[in-house]
Amino acid sequence: MMRDILFHIKSLIAGHFTVFKHSFKPAVTVEYPDEKPIIPDRFRGKHTFDENACIGCKTCMRVCPASAVEIFKDGNKKTILFDYKKCIFCGNCKYYCPKSAIGMSKQYELATDKVEDLKIEMGKKDNE
Amino acid sequence: MTETMKINIGPQHPSTHGVLRLVTELDGEDIVSVTPVIGYLHRGLEKSAESRTYLQYLPMVDRVDYLSGFFNSYAYITAVENICNIDVPKRAEYIRVLCMEMNRMTSHLLWFGTYILDLGATSPLFYSFRDREPLMSLFEELTGQRMMYNYFTFGGVRFDVTKEWLDKILKYTDEMPAKLDDYEKIITSNPIFLTRTKNKGILSKNTALKYSITGPCLRASGVNLDFRKKFGYSIYNELDFEPPVETDGDTFARYKVRIAEMRMCLSVIRQCVDYLKNNSGEISAKVNSVALKVPEGEYTTYVESPRGLLNCYVKSDGTNKPYRVKWRTGSFYLVQMLPEILKGHSMHDIMAIFGSLDVILPEVDR
Amino acid sequence: MNYLYFLYIQFLDKYGIPEIFGDITFPIFPFCIIAAAIILVVLFLVLFERRILAVFTQRKGPNRVGFNGVLQTTADAIKLLCKQNINPVGVDRFLFNAAPILVFVPIMVLWGLIPYSSEFVFMNFSTSAILYTAIAALPVIGLILAGYASNNKYSLMGGIRAAAQIISYELPIMFVLLSVAALASSVNLKDIISAQISSVWFIVPCFAGFIIMFICSIAEMNRCPFDLPEAESELVAGYNVEYSGMRFALFFLGEYASLFVMCAFMATIFLGGYLPIGNKYISELIFGSNFQFLQLLIYFEQVIWLLVKTFILVYLVMLVRATLPRLNSQGLMLLSWKFLFPLSIVNFALIMVIKYLMVV
User: Which residues contact B80 (CB under 8 A, 6 or more apart)?
Assistant: First the structure.
């Protein structure tokens, strides 16, 4: 009985001391908007599109699990439409593109006020 | 007999880990009956497989249980590989096991933090998240994302691991045991923790087997059943590890099993890293994933996930889409057993017992 | 306080207003001082707690609003003030509105009982220590009413738990207070402090009592590990689950005000209250004993000494909060009735023996 109580008191003190010990360690917080996290190279953020490399094979459309990507082919002009309402950033379109025309950038701040902004068309401007 | 009170715990409740609803009948604070209601997180993951090709379904399986995505990928991919008779290179298997064991570590760390938070202590939550973060960053570096990896492919893995990456893991495994000791100093022998967990929610051997409980909860009840050991799938039979077993079957035993399993994870991770550092080889078999030809057949995989046995059953009818995909997850059976295990306890113990089971609700509803 | 009263009467006398009017209206001043002090101290305490908890868990805590986050709690308070007061369907309107006030008012009275310096005590009754413990148990009525009136099962359970808790933890506090009263031969807080000038601080002979008092005070403040009435992971928020806006702010204010005043009370009866370490005032050492305003400086220094002691205790309470998980109700009862209550009686007996030996 007495030994139990002593053991409990000892473990309570050890617990408090362990927590107290942590107050001397530096903070691990990353203050996000001021201090950006380090993004690795393989990060899957917003897509990039190289319309010159694209051959319009539509593999990306076939491998996308969410039907978030669409290719429009008009002669030599290829445009791609990403629907970020549906996209789950799995990277299948990037991984299975035979010509590596689709890439994924490190851009991850994609929040927007307007729903139309989530449908992004790429590859049109340069061809026009 | 006093009048009983019916109280709805959930679906929106701070500690039901998702959206579980427990219709609880209380007599004072004593539990008369508990009825779990599930289905609030149903996403149709099994049905949606039938309208997608094998490759299209691949990124979605990470979301069956978002805390252990690698296990789900592994279960699905090995099922498909076995139907197609694809041989996976050994190095790829080692990378897969390494990823899975690291994933088990993150999953258990998250369980530790949230479980202690359910019991009311705040600091350990932050410590466990702090220690989970390096692993998440390592995953991000390797696969491109922190939780939804889409890293395993049919026939192997997508990218090879680098030496620097492996060194970072070794550094982590060296630092981690001291941090686990810190956790244990705060919690394991704390008298309040002991009164709340010892002899609470006892899951006897028979009940556990009757409800087909698997994983750490079963091993805490004295049954030494670990599918890594039993089937030795992947390269587990080449590794040296001994899953921890406790005999009490109470909440404290489950806690101890998970803490011991974290230490075991570290040793398995170290063995995998040793192999990967000293051996080189292919990381993927030559498979055309986009036009994957899956012959008619069916296969069921057995994977020991952090929450118990994970089965993935895939049936193929020869087309490019699976005929049927069925998931069997550990959490579902744990929720099923809740009325039995909570009987005779008080309102306080609901969260202490439920938290110790480590239920992930998305995995229950799928 | 007498000095303030004297000034006020003098001021009224100048305009020919009778003294009786001054007697009646004078309590407005201490009331305003306490109200302002509570708000300031609570704003600081909440920030202090958030910062301390952040330090314990290797975080940074609030550091955006104002310089290094000092205005964070002020911003939170303003937000709470601006929020809508929601009256849920089926609540007992009168009790629902009265409960936060019933919680807050007794705590405000407690603030008036603490002697902040040898002259600065708002209500100096001869039985102020006894009165303190009596009033300290009152807020629980507010909690029970809040739980009952909210028409919510979680609230009701929280309220009932609060009641059970206060009953079991009031008795050990009384016994510890009795032993302190025996040591000081008085139940007046100022006399208890002056008794500690000549002898040691009462924490030395009565260390077990201090530990009991510390545990029971945490229980009475409903703080972790005794926060069963509002156990977040079980009862969502317990008795205040239906409250919003200003009414919730009152509960919140009451919780932190009681944290401060309980620690101040413990500092008073165990750590010598406003007495400096070694009975030497720093201002006396700096300015010499012949300095003109020495007495006035000492009054202020005494307040600072009390604050320092109080905040050391507050820090300990927060360390406990950061470390320990929550007790369950059985454990709560067992701890009180099987451990703290017998120990407090043993402690009382021991103190009586010490007192007897001291007198002889």
Answer: B54, B154, B292, B294, B299, B314
